[in-house]
């Protein structure tokens, strides 16, 4: 059967016409989906006999709120979203001055193996469909009661490891008849799958790109990010610079600060020299410790010293605000904790 949330508008039109319906029914269906409708039976503008035909060919994928956690220190909400097969994924709502942003997942688990990330501890379970990626946005937006301004595809999973479903999602969420979210309001993060960065560039749309760099020394990066054995630091940064030059969109380099691992001033100078003069910015991320390793967050003085070095190279540098710290804000932590507790 077809998942309606995974279909582009033209595909819904084809489905409607194939069922003997009028073409305008596709717009009604798309509007229902954008408003958060979870059942074809609730699409009351459609004639009942047509709804019955539609149910024989299509369904709406499940992305229900399994649990919701609201931070007591800021306005962050973290959702555990339950899928049709019972798998759980994490989605995070963050409130900024320019409006609500949602951080969404693209996979159940992850196979990239980054040593500091809880999402990858149990490996990859499966990819999400375009409809399941979209469903997170729809579910959170419905719970919030207002339109989301920005999407960050930076939750569990490597988006480019689920590339075809990612691209289908980007097309669907941008549809004029549906969510109408502008590409400039979407950021896609990758740990550095160079060929996919080039494929996204060739698509020639103004999507914001974020690259999880986290280390500039090749040998050291290989130890904490296995993907570096396939694509070197130089290849990844070169792909980022090319993407920025082609799209005219500033590329963000995510850099996790881990005490005595990635936070030395020597590393800061290397990074500054590497990015100086390029259309880029660095987002420093003081690490969220997880149970599976002994990594520690540097103190504020080391963080500020690292930032100062980069600023001296005229590289725009921010330090990520810690949001939702009291609700297991790091990717994968909450899901794993809840699953473990319920298994016990």
From TrEMBL:
Keyword set, alphabetical order: 4Fe-4S, Cytoplasm, Disulfide bond, Iron, Iron-sulfur, Metal-binding, Methyltransferase, rRNA processing, S-adenosyl-L-methionine, Transferase, tRNA processing
Catalysed reactions listed for this entry: adenosine(37) in tRNA + 2 reduced [2Fe-2S]-[ferredoxin] + 2 S-adenosyl-L-methionine = 2-methyladenosine(37) in tRNA + 5'-deoxyadenosine + L-methionine + 2 oxidized [2Fe-2S]-[ferredoxin] + S-adenosyl-L-homocysteine; adenosine(2503) in 23S rRNA + 2 reduced [2Fe-2S]-[ferredoxin] + 2 S-adenosyl-L-methionine = 2-methyladenosine(2503) in 23S rRNA + 5'-deoxyadenosine + L-methionine + 2 oxidized [2Fe-2S]-[ferredoxin] + S-adenosyl-L-homocysteine
GO biological process terms held by the UniProt record: methylation
The enzyme's E.C. designation: 2.1.1.192
Residue positions binding [4Fe-4S] cluster: 110, 114, 117
Cofactor detail note: Binds 1 [4Fe-4S] cluster. The cluster is coordinated with 3 cysteines and an exchangeable S-adenosyl-L-methionine.
Active-site residues per Swiss-Prot or TrEMBL entry: 90, 331
Pfam family, one: RlmN_N
Binding-site residues for S-adenosyl-L-methionine, renumbered to this chain: 157-158, 189, 212-214, 288
CDD domains (UniProt xref): Radical_SAM
Obligatory cofactor(s): [4Fe-4S] cluster
Keyword Transferase: yes
PANTHER family membership: 23S RRNA METHYLTRANSFERASE (PTHR30544), RADICAL SAM CORE DOMAIN-CONTAINING PROTEIN (PTHR30544:SF5)
Task of the protein: Specifically methylates position 2 of adenine 2503 in 23S rRNA and position 2 of adenine 37 in tRNAs.
HAMAP family: RNA_methyltr_RlmN
Protein name in the entry: Probable dual-specificity RNA methyltransferase RlmN
């Amino acid at each position: 059967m077809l998942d309606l949330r995974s279909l582009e508008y033209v595909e819904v039109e084809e489905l409607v016409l194939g069922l003997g319906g009028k073409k305008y029914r596709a717009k009604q269906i798309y509007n229902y989906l954008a408003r958060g409708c979870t059942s074809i039976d609730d699409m009351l503008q459609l004639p009942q006999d047509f709804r019955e035909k539609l149910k024989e060919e299509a369904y709406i994928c499940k992305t229900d709120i399994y649990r919701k956690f609201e931070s007591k220190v800021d306005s962050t909400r973290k959702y555990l979203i339950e899928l049709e097969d019972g798998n759980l994924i994490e989605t995070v709502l963050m409130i900024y001055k320019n409006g609500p942003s949602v951080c969404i997942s693209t996979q159940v688990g992850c196979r990239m193996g980054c040593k500091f990330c809880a999402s990858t501890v149990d490996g990859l379970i499966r990819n999400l469909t375009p409809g399941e990626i979209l469903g997170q946005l729809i579910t959170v937006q419905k719970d919030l009661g207002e339109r989301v301004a920005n999407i960050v595809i930076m939750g569990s999973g490597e988006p480019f490891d689920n590339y075809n479903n990612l691209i289908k999602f980007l097309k669907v969420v941008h549809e004029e008849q549906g969510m109408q979210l502008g590409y400039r309001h979407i950021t896609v993060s990758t740990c550095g799958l160079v060929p996919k960065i080039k494929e996204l560039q060739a698509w020639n749309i103004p999507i914001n790109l974020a690259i999880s760099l986290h280390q500039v020394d090749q040998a050291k990066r290989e130890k904490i990010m296995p993907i570096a054995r396939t694509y070197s630091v130089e290849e990844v940064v070169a792909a980022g610079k090319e993407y920025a030059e082609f799209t005219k969109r500033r590329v963000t380099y995510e850099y996790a600060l881990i005490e005595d691992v990635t936070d030395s001033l020597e590393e800061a100078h290397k990074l500054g020299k590497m990015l100086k003069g390029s259309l880029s910015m660095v987002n420093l991320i003081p690490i969220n410790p997880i149970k599976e390793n002994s990594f520690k967050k540097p103190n504020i003085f080391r963080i500020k010293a690292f930032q100062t070095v980069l600023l001296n190279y005229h590289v725009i540098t921010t330090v990520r605000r810690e949001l939702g710290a009291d609700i297991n804000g790091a990717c994968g932590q909450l899901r794993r904790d809840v699953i473990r507790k319920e298994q016990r």
